[in-house]
Amino acid sequence: CLILAIETSCDETSAAVIKNGNEILSNIVSTQIDIHKRFGGVVPEVASRLHVEQITLVIEEAMSKANVEYTDLSAIAVTEGPGLVGALLIGVNAAKAIAFAHDLPLIGVHHIAGHIYANRLIQELHFPLLALVVSGGHTELVYMKEDGEFEVIGETRDDAAGEAYDKVARTLKLPYPGGPHIDRLAQEGSANIPFPRAWLEEGSYDFSFSGLKSAVINYMHNAEQRGVEISPEDVAASFQESVVEVIVTKTIQAAKEYDVKQVLLAGGVAANKGLRASLQKEMSIFSDKELVIPPLSLCTDNAAMIGAAAYVRFKQGKLSSLSLNGNPGLDLENM
Ligand code: ATP
Ligand code: MG
Ligand code: FE
């Protein structure tokens, strides 16, 4: 089974060819980060235009690198949502054109299902499992009883973890995207500033990062007003410890309560060294639960993960029609 997958939900134009849902024959990613950097964040109109320029080239490169012809393919998969609507539409229309021209089944994929299934590209999945999704737009704990079944047991009530990283980075005058810069600084600092931890109600698996973000901004503002020198390393380390402690504690609690076989890490913030180290340490208390962490290249947006998620839908006969549309508000649970 060969699936050509396309991803254009945000600022990466990507195409991949995936064999049997877990083998990457090609995974071409053209990132727009250098262009959006100038504006301090992703500009939707600019993103759409760049996807239009790149999409054909990226698809052709993915096909030739995989050494396959359209007649070899079993299906075309594409990110249906969530994401920037103008960006999604470029991928969806490219996929529809190929599906129509070559009479291939079309599969719309949820972007977060893609981030989760990136793990299948490196490891066999065992259910039930728990996925910790930490990306630029999402922070969620997702319980999966079976293949293709998603139950969101907790999610952020305000900012996503990656968003909080990027905003705190901006107050420290670090370039976009700020997550990797904070991570690097945090390794050199000490977590000696008592920033708050948002535990929310007892037993809740929801998250909140806006209070922490405001606490960091206030801390910087006060220091500036009083003319006190701050240590960016210590601010980064203290902020990161607050984020990681809450995320990891809730993940471990959920892994126990739901008695899962695996915990999967997913999304761009999964690249965070502090988060990876803490999760590895805390998960080592379980002898019957495995932690799976994808390599960095599969944590950030890419089409290979979309192909891996599409394979499950293909096997389950969950195909889309040629009237498929980009859906920025697509719901993971009711796909
Ligand atoms: P979504 O998947 O929710 O639509 P997205 O695709 O834009 O959002 P990703 O590409 O998965 O998000 O992740 C990007 C985010 O990851 C950015 O916010 C970035 O700052 C953050 N990030 C990347 N590396 C690190 C790191 N080492 N530490 C913390 N955050 C990081
Ligand atoms: Mg991105
Ligand atoms: Fe993403």
Describe what you observe in this structure:
The protein has 335 residues and is α/β, with parallel strands linked by helices. The chain has 11 helices and 10 strands. The chain has helices spanning 33-37, 44-66, 85-102, 111-117, 161-171, 179-188, 210-225, 232-257, 273-283, 296-299, 303-315; strands at 2-7, 12-19, 23-31, 75-81, 106-110, 129-134, 139-144, 151-155, 262-266, 290-292. It is globular. Fe (iii) ion (FE) binds at residues 111, 115, 135, 301. Fe (iii) ion binds at residues 111, 115, 135, 301.
Topology:
Elements: E1 2-7, E2 12-19, E3 23-31, H1 33-37, H2 44-66, E4 75-81, H3 85-102, E5 106-110, H4 111-117, E6 129-134, E7 139-144, E8 151-155, H5 161-171, H6 179-188, H7 210-225, H8 232-257, E9 262-266, H9 273-283, E10 290-292, H10 296-299, H11 303-315
Parallel strand pairs: 1-4, 4-5, 6-9, 9-10
Antiparallel strand pairs: 1-2, 2-3, 6-7, 7-8
Bound molecules: adenosine-5'-triphosphate, magnesium ion (MG) and fe (iii) ion.
Residues 111, 115, 135, 301 line the site of fe (iii) ion.
Subcellular location: Cytoplasm
InterPro entries: ATPase_NBD, Gcp-like_dom, KAE1/TsaD, Peptidase_M22_CS, TsaD
Binding site for substrate: 133-137, 166, 179, 183, 272
